[in-house]
Amino acid sequence: MAIGSAASQGGPARGEPPQTLGSIRFDTNGNVIGETLNATPQPVQQGGGGIQTGGAANDAVASLPTDDNPNSLYQAAYQYLMSGDYKAAEAGFREHVKRYPADPMTAEARFWLGESLYGQGRYPEAATLFIDTQRDYPDSKRAPENMFKLGMALEKMDNHDVACATFAQIPQRYPKAAPAILKRVADERSRAKC
């Protein structure tokens, strides 16, 4: 039995341009504030998109907590990171590190700051931060993963030999690291032909 064409299922036929089926609006915190479903889909216009942030400015920057609670700032930044908003995550983790340098979560915040830079393709900055974090917090619970991400950033910067040397150090320095991290290191060493 053949699968019906997209046109017979209500979608565009092969060769037709994509269509907008509806739109979703979000507030500055990323919450859905309204949605519409078009009964008659409209062709997608070049440069247009179906996702918008609400409010006066469509390019609204994500807001961070203004209270004096390091945990709320950390959690907000972490949520931005998990949602893929690396710029907002970067801002939050930078603010956490700046405002709360003695907080027990600062090592974690620095690791995630490096991740947010890595996620933006800013590999040299990420590598520098991972190096500094490794130096300052060599025994943190994220230290093996931090070192792994340093190797990944170095690999992205075409520093193959240094990346491989970094990967090789992880099981030696952290033999009791989580098995998942050690497997990722082994997989990356194999992939990179170290």
TrEMBL record:
Amino acid composition bias (Polar residues), ranges on this chain: 20-44
Chain spans, region Disordered: 1-68
SUPFAM superfamilies noted in UniProt: TPR-like
UniProt-listed InterPro entries: CpoB_C, TPR-like_helical_dom_sf, TPR_rpt
Pfam families: TPR_16, TPR_6
Annotated protein name in UniProt: Tpr repeat containing exported protein
